[in-house]
């Protein structure tokens, strides 16, 4: 494994504030709301240019010799490269208009997402080497992201907020509860923990760009668009992940009914990640939501702990 770290530190000089959608007393000063955000002061984005062992061969059922757990994570991984490219392209649309602080963060975010894409493309090739067909998963992501074609670019930001929120709360579960990856192939587990660390780290960036981009919108419009798109996209994304995991299990010889039953038990009963994170997801529907209202920076340090000695000074 090759490690290279670039630390970008951005100072938040103003107090933490949720950038509320629906607080009439503050909504009049939209530009101040957009500038403050709720990202913690002195928060750093660290570009961890990890390249995982390309010679390592995972087992077909790389997660605990369990076809159900393996199918779920394979379904998620296969969806990531196209989604992350969409996030990068979306933020590029707004980059020229951003204040310097946000522009620097977008640059770091872009590098993080490029690295995630590279490693998941490599991971997905291993999945295909075991005979799985994952091309339909990529096509499904393309179709989902096309839902806002012809809409203002701010709608793409709202999609990105919804998917980044989903990624952040899954990442929080993976880092806070090591049992989710217990028994997994060690290299594959490292890929997921590394990715989870950076998802938590940059979870507020897209929302801060959204506040800036929609600074001239009414509070009501901002909340309505964000919430409706969050409901639509999360439903479609989660539904597609379930559908595609079932498809992968059927490629392992399970009939559809058995695959559906086993996957439902995995997601909602034991270990039950979806059950545990439902109310965390629902926070995105609240007026005044901001991803950093749940401060889980301690998990970033936990994820970084094996690499702490390699961190380079800030640029």
UniProtKB/TrEMBL annotation:
Its EC number is 3.-.-.-. One of its GO terms (molecular function) is hydrolase activity. Coiled coil: none annotated. Keywords: Hydrolase. InterPro entries: UCP07580. Pfam families: Metal_hydrol. It comes from the Bacteria. This is Metal-dependent hydrolase. It comes from Qipengyuania benthica. The lineage of its organism: Bacteria, Pseudomonadati, Pseudomonadota, Alphaproteobacteria, Sphingomonadales.
